[in-house]
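User: Can you help me understand a structure? I only have the sequence.
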Amino acid sequence: MKKWRYLFASIILIPIFLTPMLSPPTEFNKTLVGTLVEGDRSGVLATIPAGVINLKITLTATADIDLELYDGDTLAIGWKGEVGSAPGGIYQDDTFAYSGYKGSEEYISTDSPLSQSYDLGVYAYKAGSYTVDVFYAIPDTDPAPPPDEPPPATLRKFEDVDELRQWLAQDKTDEIPYTSFFNCNNFSSTLQKAGFVDGYIINVYPLESGLHILNMVAVGQYSYYWVEPQDDKVYYSPLKLEEVE
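Assistant: Let's start by predicting it. Here is the structure, written out as C-alpha cells:
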C-alpha cells in the first residue's frame, strides 16, 4: 500500500550526463610471499603491463629485503637503480613515488598509465622472508557501442510504476560490478543514458548528504519516484527510502 509520496506540480527534467558511459577498469590485486638467503634475488615475481594505472606495490619483510623494478636488464627502481632513493623520480616516460630503503617496509607507486612494462622482484641484503602486495587497474577507455536505433526526438514519462519496473528489469545497469572506479555516480549516469536511448525522462539525483546519488524518474502526470540504479529498487522519496510495494 502506498503510504505517502512526494508530488511535484511543475518540474522540468533536463538530462545532464555526468560521466562517460565507460566500462569499469579491471583490477589486479595479488600477494606474493617468499624467503631468501642473504645476497639472493627472487627473480621475476610479476610483470607489470604497460598502460596500467594506480600502481601500488608494497613490501614488508623480516630483514633488509628491497623492492626492485626492472626494465629488461636495467634496474629502473630500487637501491642503486636509475631511481634509487626517496621520494622517487622519473624513469624514461614514467614518474614513480619510491620510499627508498625503510628497513623492512618499502613501496613503489604511480597513478599515471605506465608507458612500458616492468618486471618486479626483490633482493635480500639480509636473509629473511617477505610479503609483496601488488595492485593496479587496467582501464577500459572504449565507450559502450552506440544503440542500434537513434535516440527519440522527444522524451516521455513512464505511464505507471509497472512500466518503470518492466523497463528496469530488462536494463543491465544493475549487473555492472561496483568498484572504486565505478561507483554511484557512474551507476546513476549510466541508467540515465539508458533511459534517454529508450525515450524516457530519467534524472540524476544527488542526495542532500552528498554521500550518494540516485535517479529521479517521472511517472504519470504529476508523480516522481526515486530509483537505486545498483539494485533497481523504487522508492517514494529520497528523504525516507520507503520502497514502493
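Now, to help you interpret it: The chain has two domains: 1-24+146-245, 26-138. The longest strand covers residues 26-36. Let me know which part you'd like to focus on.
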